[in-house]
Amino acid sequence: MDFSALGKIFEDDNTMKSKMVIVWGQDDLLSWAVNFFLTSRKDWNVVSLSSERGIDFLIQEVENLNPDVVIVYQTKCVNSARLLMHLLYTRPELTMLTVSPQENFIEVYSKKQIFVQEVSDLISVVEGEYHPAH
Hints:
The chain is α/β, with parallel strands linked by helices and 134 residues long. The chain has helices at 6-11, 29-39, 55-65, 81-90, 119-127, and strands at residues 19-25, 44-50, 69-73, 95-100, 105-108, 112-115. It has one domain: Rossmann fold (3-Layer(aba) Sandwich), CATH 3.40.50.2300. Strands 2-1-3-4-5-6 form a six-stranded mixed sheet, sandwiched between helices.
C-alpha cells in the first residue's frame, strides 16, 4: 500500500465529513496504521475494538454507537455469515468493509471488491467517494 498519497487527502478541509467508524480486528501494526490514518481525519470519531471480544460484542457496539462505517479484518470470524447478515439486516444503511491484508482487497457489503493500491482507496471507500482511477 502506498502511503504517499495520503498528504493530498488531508490537505482539503472541505472534503471532511463527520463519520462514526468502528474498526474491528486484531491489535497489530496494520490495525494501528489504519486507526492512525482514520483518526487523523477531522470530524471523524474512530472506535477501535479488539476481535478478541467476539462477534456478539461487535454487534452490541454497532447497536450502541450507531456508526456510519464498520471496518473488519478478514479472519475466520469475519467470514461468519451470522455477523454479516445480522449487521446488514439490522442496519441496511451501514457501510461495512472487510479488509484482507494478505490479498490487498477491501470487500464492501454490497459485494463490490476493490483492489487496494493506495491507502487513499480505503479512505475514499469510507467516505463513499471511491472512483477507480487505476
